[in-house]
């Protein structure tokens, strides 16, 4: 993000953001809830290898068909989404989706087996290879050409390097990194049996298909605003607005990373603890501590916004006012993920689909109404209202089918106090950045002290008398 928003124009980054929005949507379709279904059936049967083989082969075959469609119809697809001059973008997107989809079940299996080191090793390989290739293509090669253009080797490199199409190299880097992760899973494929059980597959699909709707509606809630901005704003400003909105959305990356890490660990944990006598109390405590951590992240980000905003290039910082809205929206999304335990454990995944569709309808209707009037600010508010509404509905329905004793008084108090302290910090008119950040640090420490004071009996070791 710091690289893209300093090298690319707002409209160019808007193209990157839009195409990655399509990737998020289509990846849900290509995995069609099979990841969660894998966790459910691998825990309920002794033949986990058969479950792995069935799930993996299913996704692999469907992904091959998808890749063939991309290969034969790339130009038509490019025409439809207004990239007629760049059909290669469609190919890049197709390859990224292919590799990421077939990696889903191997990654899920590592989580199921609690092989965190192996999981992290493969993930970090993908992350750092992607980062390294971006640095190479976006910064290092242009530097070599501008600084050492007379060198024969650099001249040879410049023949094949297209400085006017940096977006291509962003996607090429991702294709290579995703493919590298797939190669690293080869030992896992050799270790596990590739047995396809059609009867088991049908059961897994019955469980998974509502999750497909749930996931697709969730992806609509998360990324459709960047697509709609392109079509609902005037053409001369649309892509630039997409780029600015996508950039400031990324400021919530710390919260997003923690939520994603939590999801990786929590979902298999939910199923593993299902039979434990204190499972519901455990889930309730998980929710409380999750909100505490996320409230600290929210407050830290907003109190240190003077520093955090440098994460994006100067041309993109006009979107900063929507950052607190997006942070709070993501916090509610994390709460919703915690609440989802009730319909996953009771096999009532259809409710997950219903709630997500409800959220998608809110997202779409509010975006269609607000974008032409207030631009991406409307998208930010639509995201917040969507996730907050889904959270409330899921909580109310969950109380009937799988009541969990959440400590609502403390959860709402901690959340409310964090928001109150943020608004209080805005009232402090301090010109000196150093003094302002120092005061904000005291506010943050004060908030953490309050949390510790109320929760210290759970943090401090118990002493046997």
Structural account:
The protein has about 475 residues and is mostly helical. It has a domain at about 250-455. The chain has helices at about 5, 10-30, 35-45, 50-80, 85-100, 105-110, 115-145, 150-160, 165-185, 185-190, 200-230, 235-250, 255-270, 280-305, 305-310, 325-340, 340-345, 350-375, 375-400, 410-425, 435-460. Helix 3 runs antiparallel to helix 4 and helix 14 packs antiparallel against helix 21 (about 435-460).
Backbone CA Rg = 23 Å
Individual helix count:
21
The share of residues in extended strands comes to: under 5%
Query: What is the CA–CA distance across the termini?
Result: 54 Å
Please tell me the overall pLDDT. Answer: 90
Helix/strand-derived category reads mainly alpha
Helical residue percent band? over 70%
Instruction: Please give the number of β-strands.
Output: 0
Largest sheet: none
So what's the oligomer here? single chain
Order of helices and strands: HHHHHHHHHHHHHHHHHHHHH
What's the overall geometry?
Answer: globular
| Uncertain ranges | none
What labels would you give this structure?
single chain; 465 residues; mainly alpha; globular
Describe what is shown at a glance.
The protein contains 21 helices and no strands. With 465 residues, the protein is mainly α. The model has no long low-confidence stretch (mean pLDDT 90).
